[in-house]
Amino acid sequence: MRKPINQQDRRDFLKATAMLAGGAMLSSIPLAGAYASGSDTIKIALIGCGDRGTGAAFQALSTKFNIKLVAMADAFQDRLDSSYQSLSSKFGAKIDVPKERQFVGFDAYLKAIPLADVVLLTTPPGFRPIHFEEAVKQNKQIFMEKPVAVDAPGIRKVLAAAEEAKKKKLNVVVGLQRRYQTNYRESMKRINDGAIGDIMSGQVYWNSGGVWVRPRTANQTEMEYQMRNWYYFNWLCGDHIVEQHVHNIDIANWIKNAHPVSVQGTGSRAWRTGKDYGEIYDNHSIELTYADGAVINSQCRHFEGISNRVDESFQGTKGKIYLSGSNQAIMKDYKGKELYNHNTKGNANPYQTEHDELFDAVSKGEYKFSNVDYAATSTFSAIIGRYATYSGQTIKWDEALAANNSLLPERFAWDANPRLMPDEKGLYPVAMPGQAKVL
Q1: 42-178: what CATH class?
Q2: pLDDT number for residue 35
Q3: Which of 85, 97, 126, 316 is the most exposed place for a label (fewest CB within 10 A)?
């Protein structure tokens, strides 16, 4: 557990490392392994061909560098086909993925990863630790989407692979795009310089109407149904507090330069209660308590017809700040004096910036990015939030991180059963606070 540091030490430390959180240079020593073929073409492989994966490939191919997509992998043929068609229609000759380099199935990633210099890991997050571990083993530069795991064993696997990636000088960028967004970066510079003092409290939100539903179809095995409807099963998604709200929790950890030491809270299924919604809750409200006593309140919900809110606010000893993904940042002292108001016009797309900066480093043979530590920390903060709401207990960081509570199936096959199965009515067991065992 990280020890608290005093205000001056905190400022000095953060000044020295402020841009590291967003991806500043770690080393100008040429990177090992990938992109050493003597060609100026950077070969990429897409692992996970859904909407987010296709978007990530679009952004990689939209950088100014000479990039070719040379391999694709997905569990489903139709998802791969759709992604291939979309990318080919936009990028033409940059898409060099003949049938023999299109791989389908649970083991498809093993066939695609060796063919590329840079891999894009964009499957449902339950597979992220396995795919990340293999990409590091194969000495690849990596972009991977958030969150990076769904349970404590997965986080430990990711952290172990991250240490290997550092030793090998493999760039790893993680899709927590607020770290690459101008208003957040500019605000963090000012906070690190002490503009609003030490952060003592905050509120972070992702309240919205929810996401897609993919109902069961005829002749699906249970494994295929859960894979198609992955957002509603924790072994694949982690619940929306992990899959979605991790963005806001990550800002809380970034601004505190720490992770919570304990989490407590409450949640339930109030709106999305039918069998189409698997096992996840539709609302979570938690308190993140940090080592210095600061408490940040976190709220996320998927209710239809509500007022949406996706933003973050924090209160320091000298002032306060409001932030949002729509490029807003407003900082004031407690007398109402405006200290900073970010210009929302003309800001770069942070999803694109992630790839621009990653591929700039790769093209130059530089080692600049090691995003995994903060990504794993923020992912696990959200996972502990799920543990807390499901159990109704206060969950401590160290105890949770040591848990052997893997959610993954015993084997990956279309005829294999996931750990969670429906009853005769098609309903899934749902965690009951006070009864659920999470650790």
Answers
A1: alpha beta
A2: 53
A3: 85
User: What's the pLDDT at 52?
Assistant: 97
Edge-to-edge strands, sheet with 42-47: 102-104, 67-74, 42-47, 118-121, 141-144, 172-174
Tell me the Cα Rg of the chain: 21
Q: In the chain, which stretches have pLDDT less than 70?
A: 1-38
Does a cis peptide bond (omega within 30 degrees of 0) precede residue 4?
A: no
pLDDT of residue 383: 98
Torsion of Cα atoms, 233 then 238 then 240 then 242, to 10°: -170
Residue 374, beta-bridge partner list:
none
Structure tokens given for 280: 């996840």
Which neighbouring-strand residues pair with 27?
367
pLDDT of res. 417: 97
Using a 10 angstrom Cβ sphere, with 0-12 exposed, 13-18 middle and 19 or more buried, the burial of residue 346 is: exposed
Q: How many residues does the chain have?
A: 439
Architecture of domain 181-344+372-402: 2-Layer Sandwich (3.30)
Q: Where are the domains of the chain?
A: 42-178, 181-344+372-402
- Please report how many Cα atoms fall inside a 13 Å half-sphere around the Cα of residue 256, on the Cβ side: 35
Question: What does the pLDDT read at residue 216?
Answer: 94
The predicted model scores a pTM of 0.93
